[in-house]
Structures are given as C-alpha cells and as structure tokens.
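Task: encode each sequence below as structure tokens.

Item 1
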Amino acid sequence: MDRFARCKSLFGDDFEKIQNSKILLLGVGGVGGFCLDALYRSGVQDITIVDFDTFEITNQNRQIGSENIDKIKVEVMQKKYNCTEAINTKATPQWVDNFDFEPYDLVIDAIDDMRAKVALANKCSHKLISSTGGAKKLDPTKIQITSVWKTYSDGLAKKFRYELKKSGFKGDFDVVFSDEAPRCKDLGSFVGVTGSFGLTLASLAIKKLINA
C-alpha cells in the first residue's frame, strides 16, 4: 500500500507539486519540528533544515527528537526524516545575507531571533512564511494566519512589525500568530500550542505550494 495514498486522495493532481517542491525550514524546535513532521508525512521530499542548537532536557515537554539529550538537533532530525538536508548553523543576519534562497519554493521561519527574522523578510519575503510567538499560551484555537501587518495581541509579532518598519521593509508576507494573552511571565510552553503553530505553518505551506 502506498503510504501517501490518503494524501493523494486529498490533494489529487496537486500532490505532484508537493512532492516536487523544495523547502527551506529555519528552526526545528517546538514549532519547526512539528512543521517538518507534517511536511514529511504530506509528501514533501526535499527539505533543508537549519538550526544550531542541541537538545536539552527542558525541550522534552514539546520538541520532537528531544529524547536525544545533548545531540545536535538537525543531525537527529535528518536521521529521523530522510527527506532532509541538514545545515548546522545559527541563522544570523550575516548568514541570511550570504545564503542563496533562489532554489527554494518556500522559506519557513520557525526561529526566535528577531534580527534574523527581519533579515529573512528583507531578503526573501516573496517566498516567506513566518511563525510568531507560541510560548506562554494554552489555547490552540486562538492561532490564526494573516499578514505580518495585521497581527494583534501578540508581543513577538508586535516587536516583529516594529523592527520591520525600522529596517525600511515595505513588503508583505503571511505569519502564524495567536491573539491569546500570555498566561505566565517565564518561558512556559505547551506542546498543544507550539505544535499547532508548526502544523499551521505546514498547512499554509501546502496551500501555497498547491496554488503556486
């Protein structure tokens, strides 16, 4: 039995677009890991993953692969998902400036570093989708997709907009955000929300690939 049989039933002739796509995913933590899993299970066969981190015990409440304490995240994920190419590096503005984004159909931003997020927007907003703040929240039904300029009640998204304006960015791209008020001050997180952010990114990515 074809493992993609049910995907093909859903996507029809568009499944070939999904299989032939080339995606760059930055960040494979609590959000990016679930995005990667969903893309892999949906038939995407060429995903380049970028992350610099190793797994810590505090990742185990929300991150796929986090049983591999002290192991490099992209190396763990590359072994788990054979469709991936791993780049073990921190996505800095300098890295973004020097990297060739041209081969990719979509660039998915699941990182926290604000300077790098702004650099990505300025470099490749025409093929970018981005995640905002999934921490400190409990209700996945509050997650939405909208323009980066139309987010609200999301602290990280507000900061993102401010830094984009400050950089002179005039473009637009879609983001995944939540309007739920933070439930704690510290770095609390719930896999039901962070994972849903990743799944929503994957859903948005599939829609864009189909409609390209």
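Item 2
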Amino acid sequence: MASEFSLRCYCYLDRMQPQYAAFVGTITQGDLPVEGMASLYIEMAPGNEVFRTVDIAVKATEAKPGAQVVEREFGMFEIHSLSQADVLESGRIVLDRLGLNIEDRIRPQLASVQLITNIDPYQAQLLNRWRRGSMLVPGQTLLVVECFPAAYINFACNEAEKRASINIVHVSSVGRFGRMWLSGIESEAKTARDAAIQALESIEGVSSEY
C-alpha cells in the first residue's frame, strides 16, 4: 500500500439505534438503513481511494453502501446490513486488500465537549434552521461533542442513544472534525455525554495530530 495512504477511521456499529438509523436515513444518498442493522464507517486519505475501497466492500458480501463521500482532504464510505457477519467480513476484506490491520486506524480524539443547560429560545431557533433530526426545544439541555477523525462521531452518537433517553438534533461526520448535537433533560444529557466519551476512548489505534 502506498506510504501516503492513511486509514483515518474504521468504525463498526453493532446495532443501529432507532433515532440514529432514522437520522441517517434523512441524509444518506445510497441504500437506506433501518434500526437494528450493523454498520461500518471507513474514512481514508487520499479521498479518491474511497472509490476503490467501496468497490471492494460491496463485492465482498451482501452489505449495501449507504454513503460514498469525497471532500477536500478525505474520503469516507458506509456499508450496512442486517447481518453483522456480512458487515464484518466486508471490512475484513477491505483491510486485507489494502494490506492493513484494524490497529492501523487513527485513534479518535475528543476535541470539545459542551453541555449547555436551559437553551434559550433564540438559540434553539437558530439550530433548528439547519438540523435534520429532532427539534431543539427551548429549556432543554444541549450536548455538543466534537471529535477527530470525523466519522467516529457516528459511533459516539449510536452508543449515546443506547445509554440515554435523548433526542438526536444533528450529526455531521464529514470533514476534519465530526460533531453531534443531542438534547434532553440534563441528567440524560450527562449520561449521553459519558457514554459518548467512553465509546470514543474505547477505540484503539495510532496517535495523530488534528
């Protein structure tokens, strides 16, 4: 594999949660996922490598592609299936063809965690103008988490939903940083925060600067 290739993210979701799957369905341009599916996000540089790796992944098993994105620096794709085995096997074959191991991925880093209580009505309206998930209601607590590389935010969000009764307002997982906005009562937002942090810290990989 060329020395300049970077496996920025290799992120497996064992079971998509209801809100997370519904949110992904609002933004995906590929095959639509549903609750309960397994999912795999792979992010890389150079970005154009994504076209070759998607081809490898979808030919390997019956897993379907939900996203194939190239932005200025990086490429990212997502595949999903009701069969966890298919998703894992597609990922394994991609790594094998690239001559890489899962340990070669970049370890996620938290860039920012904010817990904002009693959201003001005007700020709620500003956020609601561009969100693709649930409405942010004034008076709720807003949790904002930012991480690097970007695609890992999907794992953090899905794990947060497993542990807490929260609403997904928006998730952005393309670019240099990934961000999620979750809302709910303060105690549940704190539980979601802790779950997201724990999820990101559980992923092993190599260290990298922002």
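Check on item 2: The chain has two domains: 6-104, 109-201. The longest strand covers residues 6-13.
End of task.
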